[in-house]
Amino acid sequence: FTLSSYFTLQTFQSQCSLFTCQHYKYHFINQNKTWDEAKKYCREKYTDLASVYEETDINRLQTASKQDKEAWIGLYNESVTDPTKWKWHWSQAREKYTKNQTNWKDEEPNNVGGREYCVIVKAPKKYWVDITCTPTHPFICYNATNSSDKFYVSEEQKNWLQARRYCRDKHTDLVSGKTQLEDPQLTSKLQGKKGDHWIGLFRVTWRWSDGRSSFVRPWNLIFSDSQPDNKTLILINENKTWEEAINHCRENYKDLISITDAEQQRWVQERAKNASSSHVWLALRFTCILEDWFWVTDERVDCKNWASQVKTDDCNMSGAMETGGEHKWYKEDDMMKFNFFCSKF
Q1: DSSP notation for 121-140
Q2: Which of 75-79, 139-143, 216-220 has the least mean pLDDT?
Q3: Contact 257, 268 (CB under 8 A)
Q4: pLDDT of residue 213
Q5: Angle 23-24-25 (CA atoms, 0-180°, nearest 5)?
Q6: Quick one: which of 228, 233, 235 has its CA closest to 58?
Q7: What pTM value is reported for the model?
Q8: Mean pLDDT of the chain, nearest integer
Q9: Annotated domain spans of the chain
Q10: CATH fit for domain 228-343, picks 3.90.1170.50, 3.30.70.890, 3.30.559.70, 3.10.100.10
Q11: Which of 58, 113, 312, 338 is deepest in the core (most CB within 10 A)?
């Protein structure tokens, strides 16, 4: 199985190819069938054609194939029947995307080059424009639990995926829905501002055969950081104390790695398997003043993966993740020496 097999798509469904089924784990079927025949076979014998939702699924899929052959998976393109399929990103938004609830600029969306999957709002008239997801722009976040300050307008420059991650970590999500975008509070915040801001609208043309939408792609067509293992962090195979590790990262890259959600945890733990130490340092530090843990990179410690309840009176403690087992986090003395991850931006 190779990544090139991800391009065996709906256009060629009449051709015959091998295929891969999903049933708890992936099963490689060494038979040649069309895509429709393969889907029918998998649904009769297993669950469905293979779906990929996490970075670790790609490795599992490749392991299941056991040979370098192209194989069908359950991904197909809906653009043949609905070329303008859009969705608001925040799943809890009450408003669904409908053609009469839009504010597209004239002749938009136009999907230039077939790669315009994300949307910016253009001040001051708040027109929507579809563009590629890789340029950096300011963005707008929504706070679902704060009625007095429902919106955060950031002037930081991020691509769409980075903006989404920031909004999910610090707030609720990217602003979603025409109703939110026309809220008087947001209108007031945008008053006098110029330029383009990311919003939570994106194009969904790909779907898995089990009916679920696919926005995360295993190939690097949409997002510049869609493969974070190679682009956003680097494993340093040198044993250093926590202070030596953080100084190394800040001198040569950006900082020690922090883990703010389950997706990042999966990325880091997969790379951690290549470490030469029992643990890898994280940007976690214990403060005796507040008697709590914090990320030195200023993110909130919302995502937690401690091996057990962490209580300590020792001020010289930092967080490290085990490189094997369940990849749990442990409190370790600062003077211990481990490998570590540096973030590149």
Answers
A1: EETTTTEEEEE-S-S-EEEE
A2: 216-220
A3: yes
A4: 52
A5: 85
A6: 228
A7: 0.45
A8: 76
A9: 3-76, 86-203, 228-343
A10: 3.10.100.10
A11: 338
